[in-house]
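Why do we care about 3D structure at all? Because function follows from shape, and shape follows, mostly, from sequence. That is the central idea of this module. The next example makes it concrete: a single protein chain, its amino acid sequence, and then its structure expressed as tokens.
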Amino acid sequence: MEGDGDEGTPAEARRMAEQLVAMVQRKQGVLLDYTPATLAAVDDIVDQVKATGLTEQDSSGMIYAIGCYVGEVLVRHAQGQWRTTSEMGMTQVCSWPVVVALPSGAGANPIGKAFKRFRNGSGDSLAFFWQATTRSGLA
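And the structure:
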């Protein structure tokens, strides 16, 4: 998953999500259609990546793209908007360049959550992240 000079931008986040969708369709035959229901499949994909034995560093591009996909689900179904972390005033609490601004004004960190899922397993479910974010009134 390669960049084209837009690293760390909302445009890159959207592009990374699109690349993940295409790769998963090609390699696994699974259609990720940006609906919240697909996040359980995305949890499974993270588990599959971890099961290969690759380190977080070795898998970082894939995990980043997964986080971008989760963010795109928030954008498309919770009226979120990609923003730079600095725009959202989240540089002290988020090490990723982009986050999703929710209608409430809160920021969501789907990329960070994808890395937590990789590290911690099912206790950091991406499907639950969607539910918690949208049910808590943040979105």
